[in-house]
Design a protein that fits this description.
Elements (H helix, E strand, L loop, with lengths): L2 E9 L3 H13 L4 E6 L6 H10 L3 E5 L13 H12 L4 E6 L14 H4 L8 E5 L16 H4 L14 E5 L16 E3 L3 H13 L5 E3 L2 H6 L3 H7 L10
Parallel strand pairs: 1-2, 1-4, 2-3, 7-8
Antiparallel strand pairs: 4-6, 5-6
Helix pairs in contact: 1-2
Length: about 240
């Protein structure tokens, strides 16, 4: 079954998020889902069973360490590379997203209605709005899209993260470029977390200051990354 638009993500222990993520994107016009399980121990298979049975979802077991030797990112990059190669005949477009990201058109149009205007290009970048914790200390009951509604303020000249929607027939994997350690300051939760992951993957030593926002959104993140093999140390300011 060849789809026009599919979505790919990697997850671990995300059973409580998967159905919402899939159903939201089906409403947006996504037809198939290529999912990479990075060692889940929850009930994700039971949640996904109806989607797998009807061909909507394909689940790959992907037990690769999330962070590789030397602290470099591993599982996500290799999963997305695999998706491009394994599913290039299965979809005209593939969107590469995180499990807490929701792709939609601000104008409300179904995504397959918009994408034909970009078919001359091998891919496009989609700006990502940052919602963070929306003031919650713990996840409240209910849907993610109903509970996390407070967007981070963005100035006109701010750097905005992007996500990729690509034609798998024309995408070429050439990375990753090597990153080098830097002295950084975290501006907010999500950007700070992106800096932290980049620092973990970089050659050399990085220093990240103003980490209070990261701590608020990702409890004990230094301990959790060390548990995955990252070389990270918290020092007194």
């Amino acid at each position: 079954m060849r789809a026009y638009l599919s979505a790919c993500t990697i997850y671990r222990d995300a059973a409580s998020y998967l159905a919402e993520w899939i159903e939201f994107h089906r409403l947006m016009g996504v037809e198939r889902f290529f999912l990479y399980d990075n060692g889940s121990a929850d009930g994700h298979r039971e949640v996904l069973a109806p989607y797998v049975d009807d061909g909507t979802a394909v689940v790959h077991d992907w037990p690769m360490p999330f962070v590789g030797d030397g602290g470099r990112g591993l599982a996500l990059r290799h999963a997305f590379d695999h998706c491009l190669r394994a599913h290039r005949e299965d979809s005209r477009w593939i969107a590469f997203l995180d499990i807490d990201e929701f792709l939609f058109s601000p104008g409300g149009d179904p995504l397959p209605r918009l994408l034909p205007d970009y078919e001359e290009y091998p891919g496009l970048c989609v700006s990502r709005a940052e919602f963070g914790t929306s003031g919650h200390r713990a996840r409240p009951p209910g849907l993610v899209i109903e509970n996390y509604v407070h967007r981070r303020r963005v100035k006109p000249d701010d750097w905005v993260p992007v996500k990729s929607v690509v034609d798998p027939h024309r995408a070429i994997v050439i990375g990753p470029r090597r990153l080098r350690g830097q002295r950084l300051s975290s501006p907010d939760i999500r950007a700070g977390m992106a800096m932290l992951i980049a620092a973990v993957c970089a050659d050399g030593t990085s220093e990240i200051h103003n980490v209070r926002d990261i701590d608020r959104g990702y409890e004990r993140i230094d301990e959790r990354l060390r548990g995955l093999g990252a070389q990270i140390e918290r020092v007194a300011a």
